[in-house]
Amino acid sequence: MIIIAIFAVVLSQGEAAGQVIPFAASHGLSLAGCMFVINSASGFYQHAHKRSLTESCARALLALLVGLPLAYGIFSLIPASASNRDMLILAAMVGVAAVMVHRVYAAHSVASSRTRSKILIFGSGSVAQTVGTTLKAADPHAHIVGYFPGPNEEHPEVPRAELIEPSVSLTETALKLGVDEIVVALSERRGGSMPLRQLLDCKLYGVRVVDIATYFEKTLAQIKISHVNAGWLIFGDGFNQGVVRTAVKRVFDVLFSSLILVATAPIMLLTAIAVVLESRGPVFYTQERVGLNGMVFKVIKFRSMRTDAEKDGKPVWATKNDDRVTRVGRFIRKVRIDELPQLMNVLRGEMSLVGPRPERQFFVDDLISKIPYYAVRHSVKPGVTGWAQVRYEYGSTIEDSVEKLQYDLYYVKNHTLFLDLLILLETVAVVLTGKGAR
Question: Model pTM greater than 0.85?
Answer without folding.
Answer: no
